[in-house]
Amino acid sequence: MAQVPLFPLGTVLVPGASLPLQIFEPRYIEMLSDLVNATDVPEFGVVAIRQGHEVGADSAHDLHEVGCLARVVQAASVGDGRYLVVSTGTRRFHLDAMADAGTAYLTAEVTVLEERRGDEQEVADLATRLREALHRYAETLGAEQPQWPDDADELSYAVGASVGLDLGERQQLLAAPDTETRLRLGLRMVRREQALARTLGVVPPPPDHPWNPN
After folding, report:
1. Above 70 in pLDDT, residue 115?
2. What residues contact residue 4 under an 8 Å CB cut-off, 6+ apart?
3. CB-side exposure of 72: number of CA atoms within 13 Å?
4. C-beta separation of 29 from 82 below 8 A
5. What pLDDT shows up at residue 199?
6. Between 38 and 150, residue with greater pLDDT
7. Residue ranges of the Lon N-terminal domain (predicted)?
8. Which DSSP helix (H) or strand (E) runs through 63?
9. d(CA 39, CA 21)
């Protein structure tokens, strides 16, 4: 168990994904200062908001139980009391309890989750089928074919950003107990979205705004 600063957001961060943030609330500026000045590895916990919103004290009323640690890789002041911060998702965690660290920002007790694979043969087969489904989905949309990750773990996490899934489904992928389960879920979701796009001609919007304001 570890204690980490907590940043509730209206999005789902997964390991390996980039998270750009525009920070202006005093509590998060304090958090950024503490992270950069007091730790060798500046990491904070990102957890999706189940009920509530991002801005303002006590605005997030209910949080999902599984989140992702984010490591700060770049931070810069842009004037007017605003900072642009780029971080990268590293490891998943379970939100055990809120903690009182005497700071303006939230802190929580978390348990870092082990990354389990599942059955290796199933993982390899599902990864192949998921790549094929993603290619068919891109073809249906008439979109450029991205380069999907070769690694099955990375591929399982890439689904949420590659298809127009809502927050609940991206959270479901994040919370999956192992790679096999996540690939299976992702395959079902991509096939559903591809069928909808083929039938209705619907092109989903990008899942997230490129900069998340706090």
Report:
1. yes
2. 43, 44, 45, 69, 93, 107, 108, 110
3. 25
4. no
5. 86
6. 150
7. 1-194
8. strand 60-63
9. 20
Whole-number pLDDT of residue 38: 75
Please tell me the distance from the alpha carbon of residue 112 to that of residue 49, in angstroms, as a whole number.
19
**8: which strand partners?**
47
Cα 179 to Cα 85, 114, 116, 155, 186: the distances in Å are 29, 11, 6, 9, 10
Question: Strands 43-52, 66-79: parallel, antiparallel or unpaired by DSSP?
Answer: antiparallel
Q: What is the pLDDT of residues 72-106, one digit of tens each?
A: 999 999 888 899 999 999 999 999 999 988 899 99
The count of residues in the chain is 214
CA atoms of 116 and 38, how far apart (whole Å)? 32
- How far, in Å, CA of 118 to CA of 122, rounded? 8
Structure tokens at 55: 């801005």
> What gap in Å lies between CA 193 and CA 184, rounded to an integer?
14
> Is this prediction's pTM over 0.85?
yes
Q: What is the pLDDT of residue 163?
A: 87
- pLDDT tens for each residue of 169-191: 999 999 999 999 999 999 999 99
The gap from C-alpha 145 to its chain's centroid, in whole angstroms, comes to 22
Q: Which residue matches tokens 């591809």? A: 194
Asked if pLDDT for residue 118 goes beyond 70, the answer is yes
Q: What is the Cβ-side half-sphere exposure of residue 162, based on CA atoms within 13 angstroms?
A: 27
Q: Would you state the structure tokens that stand for residue 122, as one six-digit string?
A: 């199933």
Q: Are 23 and 78 in contact (CB under 8 A)?
A: no
DSSP state of 61: E
